[in-house]
Structure formats: structure tokens, C-alpha cells
Design brief:
Layout lengths: L14 H11 L1 H5 L13 H17 L11 H14 L7 H11 L14 H7 L6 H42 L5 H42 L5 H19 L19
Helix pairs in contact: 1-3, 4-7, 4-8, 6-8, 7-8, 7-9, 8-9
Length: about 260
């Protein structure tokens, strides 16, 4: 069962209309963005200015928590590192990649992403390989690439969680914090905590997708290379566990850990 973010009343009744216009009118701009390292869009007017503002308005229009605070260096890096895990596992999933891109910017809700574990297998088998071993090798390489990036993401997340703890203690204890800063401060903590939840959800989806691909490869093209791929998936599971069990700030309340990130 999924849990959405606490609803935030809109202060400006025009925001839903503005967000809808931006969301529909700028989709094509997202789809034409050039790609940088790890598949992330290179810095452009779209990625640096238009997408963040459009995403903020769209999230607010859906009743999600949205903070206007500037991102800290660690918060910005956390979002960059999350990119790998929230995108489809295979570059040939072009449409799903664009959907995930728009979810990453918050223009679309994460519920728009595919939950079909067969997506990766279909993309993998649509490629031309010299032998069945090449398909198993590609599977193992994708799994290992995910595993190697989890540690840096977790370290980044721990720094953000620690600073959020300081942020909220200051909000609660200092009379110098303006009343108008308290709500966006909590919204930012929810956004950060929710991002970790979202990455964990998509990691779980990737693992299930990799297992689906491995099982069906074995059925179609049995190979001794399957052992290497299976070990890689097991190692990925072991690496993901500490991340998804790390203590957070309970921003959602009552110890609840929502399955879907919407912030």
C-alpha cells in the first residue's frame, strides 16, 4: 500500500492551471534534451531553470509538499545520484526513460512510471548480440554498475539526513526562525526523505526486473554465464539492504515508511 505526501494547501489558485500548462507544453522540451554522464541531462535552460520551477508548481498542484528553499550542495548531489536508480535499467526503454525524467523533475508523479518487470528483459533481448553469453554479460554488467553506485548514494543520503536533523532542531528551538520558514523547512525534509524511499522502491523494481530477465534467459538460452549474473544480483540485494534500512528523520510521522516517493 502506498502513502502519499501530506497535502499542502495552495496559496495561489492559479498554480494548478499554470502547472498543467507547463507540464503539457514542456514535455517535448524534456524529450529533446541532450544526455550527459550517467544518462543525466546536460545543464541547459530546461534542466536548470524551467524544469525545477515547472516541477515545483506541478507537485504543489497535486497537493504534495514542495519547498522553495534552494538546494544545498549535498541535496543537489543526492538528486543527481538518484538519477541512475529511478531511470529504466536499459537505455532502449526510451519512452519510460522520458517518463522517469519527468518524474525526477516532479513534473509527473512517480506513479506514471512503469511497474512492469518485463521491460528490462524486452529491451535486453531487442539488442543484437553475438551469442547468448553476451546477453548474460550485459545483465551482469548492469547489475554490478548499480551495486557500485549504492555506497556513494547512501553516504550522500546520510549527510543530508544529518543536516535535516539539525535543520528541524533549529526550527523548533530558535525564536529567530520566521513563521514562514517553518513550513518549507519541513517540506524540504519530506522531499529528501521521500527521495531515499523512492530510490529504494526503484532498486527493488530493478532487482525484480533483473531476476525476471535472468529467469527468462535461462528458459530461452541456458548458459553457464547465468551463475555470474545470479551472483551479481545477490550482491546487489546485499548492498541495497543497508541503504533501505538506514535510520531517517521520520518526516512522514509515526515511523511510517511510504513505498512511493512523491517529493
Amino acid at each position: 500500500m502506498t502513502r502519499g505526501l501530506p497535502e499542502k494547501p495552495l496559496r495561489d489558485g492559479r498554480r494548478p492551471r499554470i502547472a498543467l500548462a507547463l507540464s503539457s507544453g514542456l514535455v517535448l522540451a524534456a524529450c529533446t534534451a541532450t544526455q550527459g554522464d550517467l544518462g543525466r541531462p546536460r545543464p541547459t535552460v530546461w534542466s536548470q531553470l524551467i524544469a525545477p520551477e515547472s516541477g515545483f508548481l506541478s507537485a504543489a498542484a497535486r497537493g504534495e509538499q514542495a519547498s522553495y528553499f534552494r538546494l544545498t550542495d549535498d541535496e543537489e548531489q543526492l538528486r543527481d545520484r538518484a538519477w541512475r536508480f529511478v531511470m529504466p535499467g536499459h537505455e532502449r526503454s526510451v519512452f519510460q526513460g522520458e517518463v522517469s525524467n519527468l518524474a525526477h523533475t516532479r513534473i509527473l508523479p512517480v506513479s506514471a512510471q512503469s511497474t512492469d518487470v518485463s521491460d528490462y528483459f524486452r529491451a535486453l533481448t531487442s539488442m543484437s548480440f553475438a551469442s547468448q553469453a553476451s546477453r548474460y554479460n550485459r545483465l551482469a554488467e548492469d547489475v554490478n554498475a548499480d551495486r557500485l553506485l549504492i555506497g556513494p548514494f547512501r553516504a550522500n543520503a546520510m549527510r543530508v539526513v544529518s543536516m535535516d536533523r539539525v535543520r528541524m532542531r533549529t526550527v523548533e528551538a530558535s525564536p529567530d526562525v520566521a513563521a514562514g520558514k517553518q513550513e518549507p523547512a519541513l517540506a524540504r525534509v519530506i522531499e529528501n526523505e521521500g527521495l531515499v524511499f523512492w530510490v529504494c522502491e526503484r532498486l527493488d523494481f530493478r532487482i525484480r526486473s533483473y531476476r525476471y530477465a535472468l529467469t527468462n534467459l535461462v528458459v530461452e538460452m541456458p548458459s553457464r554465464e547465468a551463475v555470474r549474473a545470479e551472483r551479481a544480483i545477490m550482491a546487489l540485494e546485499a548492498e541495497a539492504l543497508p541503504l533501505c534500512q538506514m535510520p531517517l528523520n521520520d518526516a512522514f510521522g509515526e515511523g511510517k515508511r511510504p513505498v512511493v516517493y512523491k517529493g
